[in-house]
Amino acid sequence: MTKKIKLRSLLIGGFFTLLFVVLIAKVYWIQVVDASWLLEQAEEKWETDKIIAPVRGTILDRNNKVLAEEGTAYTVTLNPKMIDGLHAADDIARGLADILKESDVTKATLENKIRELATRKKPDGSDFAVNVEIRNEGWKIDKEKADQVRDFIATMQTRLNKSAKTNIGIGIVEEKKRYYPGETLAAHILGYTNKEGKASLGLELKLDDTLKGVPGMLSYEKDGKGVELPDAKVDFKPAEDGNNVRLTIDKNIQFYLESALAKVNDKWHPKSLTAIAVDPQTMEILGMANTPTFNPNTYWTIKDQSDFKNNAVASRYEPGSTFKIVTLAGTVEEGLFNPNEMYQSGMIRVQDRELHDHNRVGWGKISYLDGLKRSSNVAFVKLGIEKLTQPKLKSYIEKFGFNEKTNIDMPNEVSGLIDMKYPSEYATATYGQGKVVVTAIQQTAAYAAMANGGKLMWPHIVKDILDPKTGKTIQSFAPQVVRQVVSEKTAATVSGYLEQVVSDQDIGTGKLAYMEGYRVAGKTGTANLVLPGEKTYSTNTWVISFIGYAPVEDPKILVTLIADQPDLGGNYHLGGQVLAPAFKDIVGESLQYMGVKSSKQTQMVAKEANKLKVPNFMGMTSANAKAAAKESNLSLEVFGKGEQVVEQFPKPGTEILSTQRIYVAMQNVTEMPLPNLVGRSLRDAVEACSFFKVDCQTSGEGYVSDQTSSGEGEGRSATLTLKPLSDKPAVTGAK
């Protein structure tokens, strides 16, 4: 008995001794061997790190109107475990499908999707999930839909006999998302950020580093229940919000563009439309639009990815007759364009190729100015190849920047493509077909150079970077001159010719763009297309374009419009009707909105402002008289040979307009012949006759087209024949 007790005591003592040894060993292992690893794990559980998201910068128009900003959004979540306990999956699926349904999905499809989410299990299949988001339909929805979901939750609580505080498995989580208050307005400019907050298109992508800001961090220690410990160490790094961006865009002008394109789209059903509005003096983009378009708030509903393409900068096209601006400007700059010189229209042969005017037969023998008004291809082949020559034509194309990108501050810009090798290719390039492929923004910059005095400007759309807290400007982007492509005089002359393309209501191809009250310069374009899979030009498919600016005397807005394959019913003559009404709508509304006075008002104000008194030139040398006139910004003509001025008109002290000519003679006027007055206005001609003491008789109206003189001394007389502006000849007598 005693032995049994001793053995039992020994076994029990040995067991506890062994247990104690194991315990000591475990404590040693934990405190010594695994101590650092366990402490690290514990600290990880004690500490909570929270990423503080920055606020993405706002995008504003030039007048600080919001185009894109951060807004509150709501995500609908489901708790399948709770829903299963209430046996409400079917009712919840039907109710939420009614609220969240979008146009690109059927209600039945969405209902099945929500039912699957409401009954989803954990990945291991052990139990129902507890938190499932309804993507995309219930993800980052607006307040209106969120309120509808809340109403539905209240309805379900009543139906299930639950109190208003009872969770029935439907939740709404408040979040942030990018919001575009104008919806489709300026969509191709702005682009969008996706629901994960990643910039995906347009300026959102291009300026992402500027807009996104820098995330912050909050770190603190907590207990096992997640409550922050008293006196815990807290590390806080505030988020740096993104900078705001102010664009050159004017929200109102952008609206005018898009409204006009919508009308064109409804009537002519083109494959696509593009519009650009700029200030031609600075090449700041005032508006840019395309159709088809999209709503960046619901970007995921777009099926055709080409709808996201900004054709204004990312597409090339054969420009057609709007490209004639290069040939015209080049020949005017080189002194080769005589508007009254005659040529035979209809057809011209370049080596083995016959090139025709758009009506095939032409208009007989006409002047080059009429050729411009009628948009004659033959006229421009003769101007570009025979007068300007191939090398100079190519050099002017390059001067206008068609062989390079404009470097506009927008993504995905492509360059033009200039690849002429043979004489026939140079010939078709003179009127914008063949081996000449350009972009809308390149064309816009070229026409702006004619409107602003010959300067090719850098087109840009970002005006300022702003501090989001103070609103102060961090960085500004000023207009930049790329180069002077033609002289100021040439640009003004070309503008005058382009004005006649619009103002001549008989033969001007741009006559439908004529506007009462404002002087408009512009050019039409109709280019045949080579369709995919074809090798020759289609005979009934075109790209129609119009580029114009106003008012001519001080251009404030230039608009480029392009319609790709409008439905003309096979009749290209309808091309002029496609875009001219849109141009008039856009420019008319914009000029009124900008407060630009009509051309008639401007002329009246200018006349009052430019009244000057004629200086006394009597007794001055020719050089001194010219210097005095230049200082007073007066137009002076000197006649005869002599040491000093002996006669002048008008008399000293006479009040005149700054545009009126002044005549001075260095010898007796009766000893000199009447100068050549061809090309002068009636007023200028009469003044010259009076100064030279010649009795002038006139017939007709407009500008002097012919003159004949007879007699000698003070008995001299002349007959002047005048014709209207459309028949006005070149000035040959003035210098």
Automatic annotation (TrEMBL):
Which parts of the chain span the membrane according to its record?
A: none
Q: Which residues form a coiled coil?
A: none
Q: Does the keyword Membrane apply?
A: yes
Q: Where is this region: Disordered?
A: 702-735
The question of whether Ubl conjugation is a record keyword is answered with no
Taking every annotated instance into account, which residue ranges of this chain make up the domain PASTA? Answer: 608-666
Localization per Swiss-Prot or TrEMBL? Membrane
Q: Please name the InterPro entries in this protein's record.
A: Beta-lactam/transpept (IPR050515), Beta-lactam/transpept-like (IPR012338), PASTA_dom (IPR005543), PBP_dimer (IPR005311), PBP_dimer_sf (IPR036138), PCN-bd_Tpept (IPR001460)
Entry protein name: Penicillin-binding transpeptidase domain-containing protein
